[in-house]
Amino acid sequence: MNYDYYKILIGEYINLGRSKERLLGEIGFPEELKLTVDGLTKAVDIIVAAAENSMKELVELSGLSMRAFAGKYMIPYRSMQNWCAEGKEARTPPDYLAVLIGYELITELKAEDADNGDI
After folding, report:
1. Residue 42 and residue 60: Cα distance in Å, rounded?
2. Can you tell me the distance from the alpha carbon of 98 to that of 2, in angstroms, rounded to the nearest whole number?
3. Dihedral through CA 33, CA 35, CA 37, CA 42, nearest 10?
4. In angstroms, rounded to a whole number, what is the distance separating the alpha carbons of residues 33 and 28?
5. What Cα–Cα distance (Å) separates residue 34 from each residue in 15, 31, 80, 101, 107?
6. pTM assigned to the model
7. End-to-end CA, the chain
8. Fewest CB within 10 A of the end CB: N or C in the chain?
9. Each residue of 11-66: pLDDT tens digit?
């Protein structure tokens, strides 16, 4: 999946009332993506997390600890704590950051599926 198509999917998710089901039903995914069912489910979850600007969800979907995630993407750990906090402590990360990291996670997801021979 190229970055432009990824951004279109994020926009369509928002335009379709933030519904995963409508996104899949009305837009679908390109066949060349070649993900397993689990991979496709995770890709949709990543798109939703990026569209919702949920750094906490992106950390969970990455399978990394918050500290490892922050280190991988060279983000100050305190910023990650602020972005993943709930309630009054919560801060909002820049929109572009969630979108870029989401794309990286989908790219890694495709590579993982290929490495596992699942495509």
Report:
1. 11
2. 16
3. -90
4. 11
5. 25, 6, 32, 21, 12
6. 0.85
7. 14
8. C
9. 999 998 988 888 888 877 767 677 788 888 899 999 999 999 999 999 999 999 99
Retrieve residue 49's tokens.
Answer: 């997390």
Could you tell me the two tokens for 57?
A: 């969800």
- The per-residue pLDDT for range 43-58, each reduced to its tens digit, is 999 999 999 999 999 9
Q: In Å, what is the CA distance from 86 to each residue of 34, 68, 90, 92, 102?
A: 36, 20, 5, 11, 21
> Which phi and psi (to 5°) does residue 114 adopt?
-65, -40
The token pair that represents 64 in the structure block: 């990394």
**Residue of 48, 26, 38, 27 whose CA lies nearest to 99:** 48
Q: Which helix (H) or strand (E) holds 8?
A: helix 3-15
Task: Collect all residues with Cβ–Cβ distance below 8 Å to 16 and sequence separation of at least 6.
Answer: 22, 23, 26, 27
